[in-house]
Design goal:
The strands form 3 sheets. Strands 3, 4, 5, 6, 7, 8, 9, 10 and 11 form a 9-stranded antiparallel beta sheet that branches. The chain has a two-stranded antiparallel sheet with strand order 1-2. By secondary structure, the protein is mostly beta strands. It has a single domain, classed as BH3618-like (Roll). It is built from 2 helices and 13 strands, in the order E-E-E-E-E-E-H-H-E-E-E-E-E-E-E. It has helices spanning 62-65, 75-80; strands at 2-5, 9-12, 18-20, 33-38, 44-49, 56-60, 88-94, 103-104, 110-113, 118-121, 133-134, 142-143, 146-147. It is 7% helix and 34% strand.
Length: 149
């Protein structure tokens, strides 16, 4: 399948890269279908809207930046995503003009079911995480909701 993107023009993607977000992504509730594009050799992906070529999100593997990152997916979220055994977790990256100021959102990960090709941004509750953890901080633990300083 060929999709149209603003950044890369036309791209060929495979069916197993297409994810359905039944409720969209917060702030973009009308966009339900996305393609997950790996940036080979990096811990980054692009989540590209199929309906809007100018809408895409940079995602990162949170475990590559914060190896101790963990959370329990609430049962209703797991049920909505029809998760049986496989799950992929990615987090949104906010790039800043000064690269060292870029952040990763550990509070609201993108949770994907690669078996059913379903996805959802899940807002975590009662966690030490927030929306703006330093992306390039030296693997320091998250303590009391703050990056290790």
């Amino acid at each position: 399948m060929i999709i149209e993107t603003l950044a890369w023009g036309n791209l060929e993607v495979q069916e197993e890269q297409l994810y359905h977000f039944s409720k969209g992504i917060p702030g973009f509730e009308d966009e339900n279908d996305f393609v997950l594009i790996a940036m080979e050799g990096t811990p980054f992906w692009v989540l590209q809207s199929l309906g809007n070529k100018s809408l895409s999100f940079l995602l990162g593997d949170p475990f590559a930046f914060y190896p101790a990152y963990e959370f329990e997916l609430p049962g209703d979220e797991a049920e909505e995503l029809e998760i049986v055994s496989q799950v992929i977790v990615r987090c949104m990256i906010t790039l800043k003009e000064q690269a060292e100021e870029s952040t990763i959102n550990l509070l609201a990960p993108i949770v994907l079911n690669p078996e059913r090709l379903l996805g959802k941004q899940v807002v975590l509750h009662k966690t030490p995480y927030h929306t703006k953890h330093s992306l390039f901080q030296e693997q320091q633990p998250v303590i009391d909701g703050k990056d290790g300083e």
